Amino acid sequence: MKVEELLARQGAWLSPKKFDGTIISSRLRLARNIRGVAFPGWAGARESASLCEEIRNTISSVQALRDAEFLHTGDLDGLDKLVLHERQLLSPELMERDNGSGVFITPDQRIVLMINEEDHIRLQVISPGMDLMKGWEMISSIDDELEEVLEYAFSPELGYLTACPTNVGTGLRASVMMHLPGMHLMKEIDPMIRGLNKMGYAVRGISGEGSEAFGNMFQISNQMTLGYSEESIIQSLTIIVDEVKNHENNARDQLMDDKQEYIRDYVGRSMGVLLHAHLLSSKEALDLLSAFRLGLEIGMLSGIQIPQIDELMLLTQAGHLQKIEGKVLSPDHRDRARARVIRERLKDALMY
Amino acid sequence: MKVEELLARQGAWLSPKKFDGTIISSRLRLARNIRGVAFPGWAGARESASLCEEIRNTISSVQALRDAEFLHTGDLDGLDKLVLHERQLLSPELMERDNGSGVFITPDQRIVLMINEEDHIRLQVISPGMDLMKGWEMISSIDDELEEVLEYAFSPELGYLTACPTNVGTGLRASVMMHLPGMHLMKEIDPMIRGLNKMGYAVRGISGEGSEAFGNMFQISNQMTLGYSEESIIQSLTIIVDEVKNHENNARDQLMDDKQEYIRDYVGRSMGVLLHAHLLSSKEALDLLSAFRLGLEIGMLSGIQIPQIDELMLLTQAGHLQKIEGKVLSPDHRDRARARVIRERLKDALMY
């Protein structure tokens, strides 16, 4: 099964080669639509199905997608969809759809092209660490290739036309996933979110739109695309991310200076629970793994590599867990399996 | 210093020879007063001081107290008093007093005689495990010896006269300290306390009168002494304790049958926090040690003996902790020292 093959490979954005303590991954997404065809939300089932096939056939020759796997949404069961969603390879919108939509995924899982999501085309590039500029070069050149074979809906005044007005213009959303346990412990998260919202940035949890922040992971992204150039969107977000990163580092310094024993306790008891609990909810696991990751970053813990923690954060999600176990599990059984997987993977952890 | 010598010895009621999973210790206490002398609460300072000396000199020849150490309350600093209180060798009432009162303590710490507490004499015998009948024989024979040299305030109608009406009659309070984590987990503690209160029994926490229940430790004792013989007080309490013990065992059986993973999780994460926390409050430490003790009792944990846990429950109390560290510590520093002592002592713990 194709999804199993994907699962067996680690996404490039979890690659240990590029690693930053605070910045997990950078993501760029373009929304595009085909001229003269109704947006997916308005199109009938038959119209959507034929457009999906047409786009699929047209772009399968595009250089960047040559080795990509295409998955029909209608061929995926709920668990497949959940797993892909947990890897950021399938949006919540596309999880709800079945026939007439689908997704291209490259073997390294960095490039994703969804057909008939909210827009006809959603193109996404994810990179490990802070890499918006290179990501932008990559997504932009794929977009150019696509534009050679597809006729985009484009207005000289407005730019690219999209189903939702917030995407009109560049159709670009740039986002960066950050790990901010220091700011969490210093109670600086809420003020940070309020401040960024006022400046036109969205801050979301690990699972995308509207999701609660689990594991101190936050996605910061631009809200508006109309009236800004792609480069200015990326430059502004880069500055914002840099600022948040400084805040996080300051918070950690302050904690290490004034509350070292408190941090040691926070890291230690999180490790203790991870190593010895037999029931762990998804939220608790992510929160504890976040503390564990902080422990590794500041050198209080060893024996485990940070990418192993990032992988565990993914593997202990409901979908991945059930894929690993090879069966559908009730929430209770998931909590048990999650605790077991974590105990096994962290058993070599050491604390100073 | 005498208190240090006491600390160096383990009290007999922590002796590993006698051990019951549920019943920690049995305690008997007699309240007695000297005929024709004002109760301590009414007596002046000089009167109290001279009575204290008189009683002390008179009874130091009594066989059972021959090797006992006598400590003047006025010679004890706050920390000494706290340590003695944590060992159940000094009552809260006597902690408040200074001159004109004191306490005899035998080397094995089983027999305690307090002078000028609420009553002129408070005699106490503690035994490890369930041992009320033998304890009664012991305290009764000491009481007989005392009665040969002291003239007790006694009324043929009422029995022994005491400062507080609840002690008039036999002057006997019998109490049993029980460890009830199963009933706690099954939420059966509050109904049990309400039921026992209605039947005339008091249920208190680990540190005596009015104290909150820490570490799932509960002292069950008779409330009334007037109108009952000593033997019937002890027999009734024995029946009650037996019933509570059955309840606790049933609760554990039910948990092991229906919620084994939940217990495993409760025991496991408690062990995890004990082994890795760096800040532990007194209440949290006792609650976690209670879970750890349950783990040992039901065979989920090994590598540590139950008496070691009971000892830790004592050693991590504020007074003992400061004695071990050799200095007065702020609450923050106590939390740190407590976590360190526990980490060191439990490091060989194993979970299946």
Describe what this molecule looks like in 3D.
The structure is a homodimer of 352-residue chains. By secondary structure, chain A is an alpha+beta fold. Chain A has two domains: 3-250, Glutamine synthetase/guanido kinase, catalytic domain (Creatine Kinase, Chain A, domain 2, 2-Layer Sandwich), CATH 3.30.590.10; 260-351, no CATH class. Helices cover 46% and strands 16% of the residues of chain A. Chain A has 13 helices and twelve strands. In chain A, a hairpin with a 5-residue loop joins strand 3 (102-105) and strand 4 (111-115). In chain A, helix 10 runs antiparallel to helix 11 and helix 12 crosses helix 13. The first copy, chain A, is globular. Chain A binds chain B through residues 261-262, 264-265, 268-269, 271-279, 336, 339, 351, and chain B through 261-262, 264-265, 268-269, 271-279, 336, 339, 351.
How do the helices and strands line up, and which of them pair or pack?
The structure is a homodimer of 352-residue chains.
Chain A: H1 2-8, E1 23-32, H2 45-59, E2 69-72, H3 78-86, H4 92-95, E3 102-105, E4 111-115, E5 121-128, H5 132-149, E6 154-155, E7 159-160, E8 172-179, H6 181-185, H7 189-198, E9 201-204, E10 217-222, H8 230-258, H9 260-276, H10 282-297, E11 301-302, H11 306-315, H12 318-325, H13 331-345, E12 350-351
Helix pairs in contact in A: 3-12, 8-9, 9-10, 10-11, 12-13
Quickly count the helices of chain A: 13
Percent of residues in helices of chain A: 40-55%
Radius of gyration of chain A: 21 Å
| CATH topology group of the largest domain in chain A | Creatine Kinase, Chain A, domain 2
Could you give the count of β-strands of chain A?
A: 12
| Overall 3D form of chain A | globular
